Amino acid sequence: MDGWWRRDPFFIRYMAREATAPFVAAYAIVLLVGIVSLARGADAYEEWLEALASTGWIVAHAILVAIFAYHTYTWFQIMPKTMPPVVVRGRRLAPEVITFAGIAAAVLASLALWILVAYGAP
Amino acid sequence: MADTRKIVLEVLRYTPGQSTAPTLQQYPIEFTDDMSVLQGLQQVKDFVDGSLTFRWSCRMAICGSCGMMIDGAPKLACRAFLRDFLPGPLRVEPLEHFPIERDLVVDISDFVDKLGRITPWIEPREPRSLEQGEYLQTPAQLERFESFSHCINCMLCYAACPQYGLDSRFLGPAATALLHRYNSDSRDGAQAKRMELVNSEEGVWACTAVGYCSEVCPKAVDPANAVNQNKTASAVSWFARFLPGRG
Known about the structure:
- The complex is a heterodimer of chains A (122) and B (247).
- Chain A contains four helices and two strands, in the order αααββα.
- Chain A is mainly alpha-helical and 122 residues long.
- In chain A, strands 1-2 form a two-stranded antiparallel ribbon.
- In chain A, helix 3 runs antiparallel to helix 4.
- The longest helix of chain A has 32 residues, at 9-40.
- Chain B is α+β, with helices and mostly antiparallel strands and 247 residues long.
- Chain B has two domains: 5-106, Roll (Ubiquitin-like (UB roll)); 109-242, Alpha-helical ferredoxin (Fumarate Reductase Iron-sulfur Protein, Chain B, domain 2, Orthogonal Bundle), CATH 1.10.1060.10.
- Chain B has a five-stranded mixed sheet with strand order 2-1-5-3-4. A two-stranded antiparallel ribbon of chain B has the order 6-7.
- Chain B is elongated.
- The interface between A and B is medium-sized, with 19 and 23 residues.
């Protein structure tokens, strides 16, 4: 079974999906640090924001966005296989509908957050 | 034969006890557009080499006998067409993760044993006498398990499952799908017994949601869904122990 995941493109995609997960967890810690610094006061929060504005972090964010996009796509792709059947008007929803709805929700949520951050809360 | 084309079948040959290791043997064949890989193998057996051994029966993707690795992927030989593998050569090997009995025939006793362990029948939720009539079920209740009853036991999902390949104690996709079929049946009352198997070391938690089992299933049974629904069921049954009056 050595190197089993290199045998089929399906397995390579699976391993790529799994490999993105630690990055999601790691970025949750970055955000957690942001919340902790917010709780510590305005100065600490500004310091955290400034740190994230460095070139290194901006490059890291560009890479992370690509990783998160792949993670989101593959996460919603597997989602129909992990949940009980959703029955609408007596018929089972097709897996493609669930995947599409999930990805659409993620895109809309990201856009809403973007607008909120760029233009401020209404 | 009208409109024939040529392809080379590269078939794994092995006879335990006689061969020291599996070898690949090449068989150039002529085929027509409508010929399946199974028909290609039959042509070899009938006209070239009668010793080539493989399982088959119905030729129409319902008996589940002719599962094999075709071009590296688990497929039913009767449902894969030679025309799709041009220019070849087309590699044909026995189902992965099972011991070879001879050539393309594998030893399926592990799977048969697993099927026997899931209580693959309905144990009535409530006993009824003949006079009381049959157990009734609504279309919505049927919908909950029907797709899982379409399994033809072809074992392609086991050849597709890396977790089963790494540790064959894992109950695996098809047996769990059938287990789920009975556990989701409104007439059945043996859920508690089957949940013991679901929750055990060899149960659903060995699955890491690769999902290739559902991809290769020729009957759209979606065994990955059965396995993952039972992770939820297993977690719920574990937490239910802490509820008052339970455990």
